[in-house]
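Ligand-bound model needed. cytidine-5'-triphosphate.
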Amino acid sequence: MLDLVAVAFWAMLPAYVPNNAAVLAGGGAPIDGGRTMGGRRLLGDGKTWRGTAVGTAVGVLLAQVLNLVAPTVGQSIGVDLPTFPLAAAVGLALGAMLGDIGASFLKRRTGRERGAAFPVVDQLDFVAGALVCAALFDFGWFIETFTLPVVVVVLLLTPVLHVATNAIAYLLGLKDEPY
Ligand code: CTP
Ligand code: MG
Ligand code: K
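Prediction:
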């Protein structure tokens, strides 16, 4: 059980970090360029080119660091930790950003202003994006790494981690809302 949690957490790290990096790097031009659809912003000012690019880059870089330390860390906790081929790393990091962007599109279409909470979607949008893109970019790696039990742990663990991380970012004054 602990093995599953360790593998799930490790395999998702390149998808967890991009959203937090985007919060720190955000600002600048919005992806939608201010365009609207049905009187509402397509995505809103919370989805920027810079946040998306930096978030993706940080996730891919983190995967390289994890690749270097996987044997050492794995041995010390007695778990066979996965490494990340480049395509898988890009899939996880970019996919996490795209999932979050997709959720903003849905939020705007359902009348939610920038920053409004969208429970469940807020907690799992980036997981869905990361898993779909990782599968598209490196299917062999994906099915080997994300076995059904690992996916189940990811789906249970991520909302808890997401709520905790964002609450901390809010308390530190890095984020405007605690979700
Ligand atoms: N951010 C960014 N680019 C992204 C994602 C996030 O620049 N692709 C930055 C923005 O500064 C954003 C902050 O990270 O305001 C927090 O991200 P998030 O909570 O996802 O955005 P919200 O501002 O809450 O907007 P939305 O309602 O569209 O989710
Ligand atoms: Mg938000
Ligand atoms: K979000």
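The first strand starts at residue 36 and ends at 37.
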